[in-house]
Amino acid sequence: TPEDLLSPEETYRLDRQHVFHSWSAQGALKPMVITRAEGSYVWDGAGTRFLDLSSQLVNTNVGHQHPKVVAGIVEQAQRLCTIAPQHANAARSKAAQLIAEVAPEGLNTVFFTNGGADAIEHAVRMARLHTGKYKVLSQYRSYHGGTATAVNLTGDPRRWPNDYGSAGAVHFFGPFLYRSHFHATTEAEETERALAHLEQLIAFEGPGTIAAIVLETVPGTAGIMTPPPGYLAGVRELCDRHGIVYIADEVMAGFGRTGRWFAVEHFDVVPDLITFAKGVNSGYVPLGGVVISDAIAATFRDRPFPGGLTYSGHPLACAAAVATITAMHEEKIVENADRIGREVLGPGLRELAERHPVIGEVRGLGVFWALDLVLDRETKEPIAPYGGTSEAMAVLVAACKANGVLPFTNYHRLHVVPPCTVSDAEVREGLAALDAALSTLEAHLGA
Ligand code: PLP
Q1: Which family does it belong to (predicted)?
Q2: Which ipTM was obtained for this model?
Q3: Domain check: are 133 and 115 in the same one?
Q4: Residue 10 CA to ligand 1 centre (angstroms)
Q5: Ligand 1 center from residue 261 Cα (angstroms)
Q6: Closest ligand 1 atom to the C-alpha of 253?
Q7: H or E element that contains 64
């Protein structure tokens, strides 16, 4: 393999010479060379081990190099590497069945894509054709992907330089009590006011123009804001009342991340379409898709669906999904994520907040947690601006790495998102490293 041929130094040199990276000015990049990964750990070119509290881009839900998933891919590669989407194939059929089995009642059909962004593109296309309407509502503080429609629906600054007209996207504020847009002081107030805001937005945009509302069940990259009780049920009711398709984006929250197969299970709501990717096969081979309600599937029974991809339902990716979902069932990996969140990681992070005033709020569930970092708990002033970064955040990231953990950070937040397979001992190791890194951050801020 290339790993055998290239030294870490040569890997780095060729990267800087020939590789163009995502979302970055290329000049200043210093990518970490990763040579090996196993379970919750990765190793850099110097042989230093890091606990992966990022799950890469929050996708390695069964950890790195899970032997059953590696074997599933190898066996499929030996049998049949690729086949066009118009044929039927066992890996694809089985993956679709396993996904439908864990999806809510009434969602039984799967359209496979290459990742999350194109899952959103196709879900929106289905919703528009199903309803005959065009606009799509989505939240500020959201991420839906880097392709045309998905980035327009995204409610974060990555949309700004990519916005050449709205593509029918209209944004609204979701519930977020800690930084309430509605001046609410209780969860009940936040739910009521956020729903009133959405209802009014629908009335003013024209319910007859709105094809879909797309929202992350628990917004991920934007800050892991678990919706308060009643909010998603209220969204479902508004969609029903106005003939709007409810698309739940579970690309990040799905497949065990929140301690459930799909995060909507926490809230007792059934969306019309669910987009997934990442955790479905832990990202070992690119895969995403849309789980489709029976009603929307029926729209395309006699009418062609005008969309497709050469690699829709790619056998290697689907074999990885079959092995991942099977391992998750056999090893009770979703249950582990749930228990870790309730018994170890959640309490451990709250305990850190008691000792570190820089933590303004701890929020999350399962293995899906965010620390909202502030200069002052009263004013809640973040330690980096919205859409930007700061020296303090750079100090924090460096301190995390110096203490042996890979963090996931966004603006002023540190996300703690280990694999769903993480053990109690690994969580405790991670918490100790974060404790030390937060002390370094506080020493820097005090200076
Ligand atoms: N939707 C959500 C909620 C995501 O978190 C992401 C990626 O982080 C996407 C969509 C886009 O997925 P991809 O990067 O696979 O295109």
Answers
A1: Belongs to the class-III pyridoxal-phosphate-dependent aminotransferase family.
A2: 0.99
A3: yes
A4: 31
A5: 17
A6: 3
A7: none
